[in-house]
Write a structure and sequence with these properties.
It is a single chain. By secondary structure, the chain is α/β, with parallel strands linked by helices. The chain has a domain at 2-10 and 25-38 and 46-90 and 160-250: Rossmann fold (3-Layer(aba) Sandwich). It has helices at 40-46, 72-79, 97-107, 113-126, 142-155, 172-187, 199-205, 223-228, 233-250; strands at residues 2-11, 14-24, 29-33, 55-60, 63-66, 82-85, 160-164, 192-195, 208-213, 216-222. The protein has a six-stranded mixed sheet, with helices on both faces. Strands 2-1-4-5 form a four-stranded antiparallel sheet, with helices on one face. Helix 3 (97-107) crosses helix 4 and helix 5 (142-155) runs parallel beside helix 6 (172-187). It is globular, with a radius of gyration of 18 Å. It is found in: Cell membrane. Keywords: ATP-binding, Cell membrane, Membrane, Nucleotide-binding, Transport. This is Amino acid ABC transporter ATP-binding protein. Residues 2-239 form the ABC transporter domain. InterPro entries: AAA+_ATPase, ABC_ATPase_HisP-typ, ABC_transporter-like_ATP-bd, ABC_transporter-like_CS, MetN_ABC_transporter-like, P-loop_NTPase.
Length: 251
């Protein structure tokens, strides 16, 4: 479904991604974890070319892009395979929940408005927000806005949904409602890549884990094996630190 080979990205003299390679299969969930500044968000933004890598090959379904010589057609084809859920929702402030979901259907896919609205309502129902169809983002909680953005991503029928720390902007009590929706998507075998700090969620939902630090993949593997039997000392230290912080928060 998705394969990344030797992806390199720098901002000026700062090397952010230093030869990243991995792949996932259709229906799998990949969680990307690691300390702040490790390159996680840059990586996921490179996958749909919101950031332009200098080197590497990205393959999603039948789309293939060589970052050393990308064409506009290659970029458009790659982007058509993905949908992005951002940290800060990125909803249209002047459009209702339903209009945010149907915008791409009507404008990009030229779906008739009545049909788009029907699809939009089905998707809002999936994320538990059919009653908010006429609400504007300013009247909704952060958790509700993020669920609208997930419905918007689903409307594009992407091959892969990319989540860039989808709960990082939420108050703690709102985190679970968003994670619950993502869990439901995982149960439907929707292919997802999720950058997250939620370790319990990653352990429960992900099929595979990638641990990044300093622009490298330090370790990767099946989720259960990764948390139970990490091989690299850097990984073990990170898991211990995150677990300790989580316990301190509970106390």
């Amino acid at each position: 479904m998705l394969k990344v080979t030797n992806l390199v990205k720098s901002f000026g003299a700062l090397d952010v991604l230093k030869g990243i390679s991995f792949e996932i299969k259709q229906g799998e969930v990949l969680a990307i974890i690691g300390p702040s500044g490790s390159g996680k968000s840059t990586l996921i933004r490179c996958l749909n070319y919101l950031e332009q890598p200098q080197q590497g090959i990205i393959e999603i379904d039948n789309a293939r892009l060589d970052a050393a010589k990308p064409t506009k057609k290659d970029i458009q084809h790659l982007r058509s395979k993905t949908a992005m859920v951002f940290q800060n929702y990125n909803l249209y402030k002047n459009k209702t929940a339903l209009e945010n979901v149907t915008e791409s259907l009507i404008v990009v896919k030229k779906t008739p408005k009545a049909e788009a609205n029907k699809m939009g309502m089905q998707l809002l129902s999936e994320v538990g927000l059919e009653a908010k169809r006429d609400n504007y983002p300013v009247t909704m909680s952060g958790g509700q806005q993020q669920r609208v953005s997930i419905a918007r991503a689903l409307a594009q029928k992407p091959h892969v949904i990319l989540f860039d720390e989808p709960t990082s902007s939420l108050d703690p009590e709102l985190v679970q409602e968003v994670l619950h929706v993502i869990k439901k998507l995982a149960e439907q075998k929707i292919t997802m890549i999720i950058v997250t700090h939620e370790m319990d969620f990653a352990r429960e939902v992900a099929d595979h884990i990638i641990f990044m630090a300093d622009g490298h993949i330090v370790e990767q593997g099946p989720a259960k094996e990764f948390f139970a039997n990490a091989q690299q000392e850097r990984t073990k230290k990170f898991i211990r630190q995150i677990t300790s912080e989580s316990e301190d928060t509970i106390l």
